Amino acid sequence: MTEPPLQEALRLRARERVVVHVDSPTARWVGALAFLIAASWLAVGKSPWSLTILAAVALIARGIFLGRPVTAAHAIAAAATVFAGFAAHLLAFDVTGDVLIASSGLVLMWPTTARPEPGQLPRVWALVKATSGDPVAPFAMQMLKSHFFSTDGTAAIAYRTRLGYAVVSGDPIGDEDGFPDLIAEFAGMCHTRGWRVVVLGCSERRLGLWPDLRPVPIGRDVVIDVPAFDMVGRRFRNLRQAVQRTHNAGITTEIVAEQELADGLLAELTDVLLSSAKGSRTERGFSMILDGALTGHYPGILLIVARDNAGRVQGFHRYALAGDGGDVTLDVPWHRRGAPNGIDERLSVDMIAAMKELGVQRLSLAFAAFPEIFTDPERGALRGLCYAAIHLGDSLIALESLYRYLRKFHALGDRRYVLLPLSQVLPLLMVLLSLEFLPRRRHLPTVTGSASE
Question: Got a GO cellular component term for this one (predicted)?
Answer without folding.
Answer: plasma membrane
